[in-house]
Fold this sequence. Notes:
This protein has 79 residues and is an alpha+beta fold. The chain has a single domain, classed as 2-Layer Sandwich (GMP Synthetase, Chain A, domain 3), CATH 3.30.300.130. The protein is 43% helix and 27% strand. A 3-stranded mixed sheet has the order 1-2-3. Strand 1 and strand 2 form a beta hairpin. It is globular. The termini are far apart.
Amino acid sequence: MKKDTVERIKDLIDKMRPFLINDGGDISFIEYKDNVVYVSLSGACKDCALIDYTLKDGIEEMIISEIPEVKAVVNVDNQ
């Protein structure tokens, strides 16, 4: 049985978490709605000057490449 989109997103986030944790940060899945993934970046990521690069060039790029129906990834703590 094929995994649903939310499970696939959570799996990808779980694969990214060790890299963020290694740098003192973390990421949590919040929700998936209207082809947008909402996450919460915390720890060192929360106040990092490179948070937008991490989110767009790293996290978003990886998720969209694996799950094309996703159109964006948004950090709920940075809206």
